[in-house]
Structure prediction request, 95 residues.
Amino acid sequence: MTHPAIFARPLSLAIAAANVDDLLHRPHVRVPSEGEDFWTIAAAALREVSATGNLVSDAHLVALMRASGVSSIWTQDRDLRKFDGIRVRDPFTDH
Prediction:
């Protein structure tokens, strides 16, 4: 949201950081992190879709979600629909 080449009116760092801070303090928001068994989960996600290129970072995100017990994500990234058990919701079309 701060990149001037992407957004006509990018946010300042202060406003973007305040938005993230507000989001992280909501009771329903979880921040996934890598635990001891993360590689086992990540390797399974990588194999699930034979991940290469951009799918590698998607598999990493899916592994973080699975390790944290998260099964739903709001995104326009259609590649995440390739992973079993991940519910992808489009923030612009799903209500």
Q: What stands out?
A: Residues 2 and 8 are 10 Å apart (CA to CA).
